[in-house]
Amino acid sequence: EVQLVESGGGLVRPGGSLRLSCADSGFTFIDAWMSWVRQAPGKGLEWIGRIRSKTDGGAISYAAPVKGRFTISRDDSKNTLFLEMNSLKTEDTAIYYCASGDYFNFWGQGTLVTVSS
Amino acid sequence: QTVVTQEPSFSVSPGGTVTITCGLSSGSVSPSYYPCWYQQTPGQAPRTLIYSTTTRSSGVPNRFSGSILGNKAALTITGAQADDESDYYCVLFMGSGIWVFGGGTRLTVL
Fold it and tell me: Which residues in chain A (20-39) have CB-CB distances under 8 A to chain B?
């Protein structure tokens, strides 16, 4: 069974950087398409981006609000997904979820990122 | 930019049937948008209900069903129960690797 655990959240100043991780304890990470989705306090879900499996080409796509600032990567040897966030803005404050599968089939519990001065 | 639309809120009586829809600010939703549905209760991560229009995720009760109704994707709950009171989100595939979530529908069971 897929079990996803996010980490790396915390308080960061506007303009700062943060790196989130998502560890998958399942056995199918290498074949999984992985995504990041965030949820601002009291708001709805927002898709951030996705990385395909290497066997499917490894292409990465991003939502417009984060393109050029956020970078998604994966380390299949460690069953871990990453989200590198730069030039953070107050509006990036949210719970960040990783999700596994073509259709966001499995979700982690999320990690909170707060961007504030 | 295309917006994915959902009803902000809905209420249903216990045992009743409710249909939540997922549309586009411009155009019609078809199976090529691979509509998916998620349930989220406060403080919890989303749970996948339906993917690729009609496929129920493992362990999801069959009172949840997905379809295309007219020009929108739809999630129907038949025989609503108290613990169905949640926020429901749809997501659509826009092509070029891009997905967009709807704003969510808060369902009240009373």
Answer: 35, 37
Write out the DSSP string of A16-82. --EEEEEEE-SS-GGG--EEEEEE-TTS-EEEEEEE--GGGT--EEE-TTTBTTEEEEEEGGGTEEE
Q: Does A51 touch chain B (CB under 8 A)?
A: no
* Cβ contact A114:A10 at 8 Å: yes
Q: Is B47 on the interface with A (CB under 8 A)?
A: yes
Tens digits of pLDDT across chain B (110 residues): 789 999 999 999 999 999 999 999 999 999 999 999 999 999 999 999 999 999 999 999 999 999 999 999 999 999 999 999 999 999 999 999 999 999 999 999 99
